[in-house]
Amino acid sequence: MEIIILLGIAVVVVICGGLLVVRFAFREEIKAIKLARHVGTDIPCLRCSDCCAKTVIVSRKEIEQICHQTGMKEEEFCNRRLHLRYLKHQPNGHCIFQEISSNSTGDEIASCKIYQIRPTACRKFPHLKYLGVNGLDGRCRAVRQKVEDNRGLK
What's the rounded Cα separation, in Å, for the pair 141 and 50? Predict the structure, then answer.
């Protein structure tokens, strides 16, 4: 009888340990899903260009389109790691296609050189999807602002 109880305890410990590992491994995804449930998915863009500082994985089709439209070679704007291709960054940490200019009042304005053909990851930011469940990227200033606005309503 004692052996059965010990085996039962061992099974519970293994299951709980496995759940903790899954929770740790997917902590960012869980956080993104909770954000979407907390603030909703209607996030107005603030045009702050925070999204330009994230790593953007690009597909073969997107690379071909960028090459065709810009006349650049893949090596000029893409890095490769583990069979993935992603957009290079400037020394300031922002995407190689981000352009900073000044308006008449001297304010800096960020724009995308390939906005019309920007990759899907750029188009959808800050919206994420994990196994069909909506999530939001907390690195987005508009998402963080909406979280703060919701806290003020309570």
Answer: 7
Q: Taking a C-beta distance cutoff of 8 angstroms, is the pair 141, 50 a contact?
A: yes
Cα-based distances in Å from 133 to 30, 36, 127, 130: 10, 9, 11, 5
Terminal C-alpha separation, the chain = 53
- pLDDT for 18 equals 56
Residue 96 sits at the vertex; the CA angle it makes with 91 and 97, to the nearest 5 degrees, is 145
Entry pTM: 0.68
Residues of the chain below pLDDT 50:
none
* 72 close to 88: Cβ distance less than 8 angstroms: no
| Contact (CB, 8 A) for 75 and 17 | no
Is-contact 152 138, C-beta < 8 A?
Answer: no
